Protein 1
Amino acid sequence: MGLKVVKFGGSSLADAEQFRKVAAIIKADPDRRYVVASAPGKRFSSDVKVTDMLYHCYDMVRNREDITDYFKQISERYNGIIRDLGLNFDISGELDYIRNAIMHHSGRDFAASRGEYLNSLILAKFLGFDFIDAESVVYFRENGVYDDEKTNEELKKELKNHDYAIIPGFYGVMPNGTIKTFSRGGSDITGSIVARAADATIYENWTDVSGCLMADPRIVDEPLPIKTITYSELRELSYMGASVLHEEAIFPVRYAGIPINIRNTNVPTAPGTMIVSSTNEYDTERVITGIAGKKGFSVITIEKDMMNSEVGFGRKILDVLEDNDMPFEHLPSGVDTMSVVVSTSYLDARRERIIASINKRVRPDSVVIEDGLALLAVVGRGMVKSKGTAARVFDAISDADINIRMIDQGSSELNIIVGVEEKDLEKALNAIYREFVK
Ligand code: ASP
């Protein structure tokens, strides 16, 4: 096998015991050469992530509060790990420097980034790997957008100097030398960036679940794990709220054709989920790959007699949305009606303005907004090849005595989107799951 890039999330590096599991996984395979590390996460459910503690320090300084005592808890998280691992490693100088820098307004992103920085120093020491600071290889542009070309070029060069290395996730550097972070959960993105630059055969993303599940375990009881999912299917499911991976983490590896393997640090023998760019194989028995759903949508329904023959009607409605900076999700339409499904939270700030503009632009017979819609997506690359999937979805929903408010199937047949009342979402998801997974 070729080179592997591995990323460990915060819960995988939360304490010394987790560090030992991580080290065993890395040492078990000499191809695991580049490791991206998160900051220490929660050790138990009421615990606080170090990243959150660092943001808190930043806020305290802004409120002119003294962080000395609070910062001791952060120092203790790291010193505890070092002590419990039995390492001979003194990071007190680093900790003093960081505390002072935060006290002297070094910036919110700088504060947050130190979580991964310190954890990576310790992991490098523990494994005997080199340490590559993300600040010297991950670049952002002046406008704050990640600079993929420069990063790929510089990182490629730097990796050639190291056989085995640890790279902190989550942050990089601005052209003026200040630290900038990705959005929360951004170590996933760093892992993907490193995998691309290293030309890895696989990007292993180690977390605390055994891969992506076919449904949300808070809604469906013990859903099965997904063995293989394509990037497009994953996008559809994450859009509907399923989350295992930072959304932006897909792009660097997707275009390089590198598969992502989601694995569980606490159950290293489980194969996890493979995320691939394409595959001809699918689960012929179950047909679907996964289901997910989200609440908080509204439908704007515009009615006008003979709308169908009025050239430019749709464009005018979309213009109104654009002028109001309003994204839309779906456009299910009839002969004389056009419906626009939008997110209620976006709509709330612009409700009156949008109704007034639609009335003015297209002079409809009526414009009605209904709230309380939930959308659910049934996703599966196998649907295009198997007959009757849509019928099974609708039967399952109606057998559960649930009213379907909207249906939308993309022409790619990768997904079927169904709109139901918010109160029916959980019941509908369970009904569909039962229909396909016996
Ligand atoms: N530590 C950061 C966070 O909590 C980044 C990450 O873990 O991916 O968001």
Protein 2
Amino acid sequence: MADPLGTAAELRAALDAGAVSAVDLVDAAHARADAVEPQIKALLHPRWEAARAEAAESDDRRAAAGSASNLDGIPIVLKDNIVQRDEPATCASRILEGYRSPFSATVVDRLREAGAIIVARTNMDEFAMGSSTENSAFGATRNPWDLERVPGGSSGGSAAAVAAGIVPLALGSDTGGSIRQPASFSGVVGMKPTYGRVSRFGLVAFASSLDQIGPFARTAEDAAWLVDAISGHDPHDSTSLPEPALATTAALTTPGGGHADVAGLTIGIPRASGDQAGLSPGVEERVREAVAVLEAAGAKTCEVSLPHTRYGVAAYYLVCTAEASSNLARFDGVRYGRRVEGPEGGITAMYEYTRAAGFGDEVKRRILLGTYALSAGYYDAYYRKAQQVRTLLRRDFEQAFEACDIIAMPTVPETAFRVGEKSDDPLAMYLADIFTVSANLVGAPGISLPCGFDQDLPVGLQLVGPPLEDARVLRVAHAFQQLTRHHEPRPSL
Ligand code: GLN
């Protein structure tokens, strides 16, 4: 029998061969969750019974007609900011405790059409604000490779669930790195598609011009399966691109049926700016080795200059806080979740008490910063400037992609830090987003994939492609995984 904790591709083969059933896979995920959850706390609101019933339907479908869908019967988890009809969606916030969604996100509808079995929701930083999953109102998630360390964030629960082998696949959201950074810290693959590729309908908005849903998996091939299933135009999202669903899986192989290779590809290496926010030597070394592997396989490299990336973190934290202050205004105790009346009575007091009790410190900090940045007299100095930086950054990337096909760099300057290590220093936490925020600010696709270890902690290699070249990013990632075994080790939980 196949390893019930295998990749989606292995599980599909086992399902097709009749070696396992979809119900077996839910049971295996449940057993694994029972074994590891007390230590890692990745999941919120598991739905094992419902998942089992849906898996039984998948098994019936397959018995009757075979299955054409890669994801039919494969268990998956969703970040708690992606809504599913009749299920809770707390965004790891007290303010949404008790809320149940009356509708499903487009990605959820597409997953269900593909037959994927949603088994649980995952822990996150409150409203996706953070890099460690410590900002959850329901307790921190731990890194499966070292329980004293964070799994990254904000999609830390999704990353940890895949890393710990509960499920082969998960969805997260990436506004400034929240898929790629936890993928790096947790030793799994995580991808942010091109902005607009995947519908945001039913994703609770943090910063609407940056947010993008994307996959976690252990291989680029599995990530391609997932991205193909959830992408494509959606009339419910006005920023959704008028493009059909991606067919990246096909791009992983050559017409002759072999694996795609990197011969003739030019990889851009950003020129060190002297402003690398504490790039650790171990991370730098692993990324250099990864690029050398691609070179040995026939890729060329060239240096590219991205001079405005040094303003990326500052611009990102203005844009995301400004948009968050506006998006989170809807949580007022009237329409969603919790209400706190307060002793005075009256609607203004109710808003104030609800928001004071419902939001955590980081969310309040961002609403305050964003409201300030948008206020009359400051708008030009902050928000408009940040948008101008975005334009300059876009030009940097356009120019770089005239010289190269794809850019390689670290995902994060460091490996997973200890729980509590940065809790009192939000600025240090923000600065570590230096390598991830640019892709969001320019809308480009980016992936993080395991490229080895530094002092027993996973290191992530980031590949960023030009907007719309999601297939290229996955193809290079897949080629790298054919050349190396960095995606194979599992934490000894
Ligand atoms: N760490 C970044 C932040 O705190 C990224 C968050 C995200 O991508 N959702 O905003």
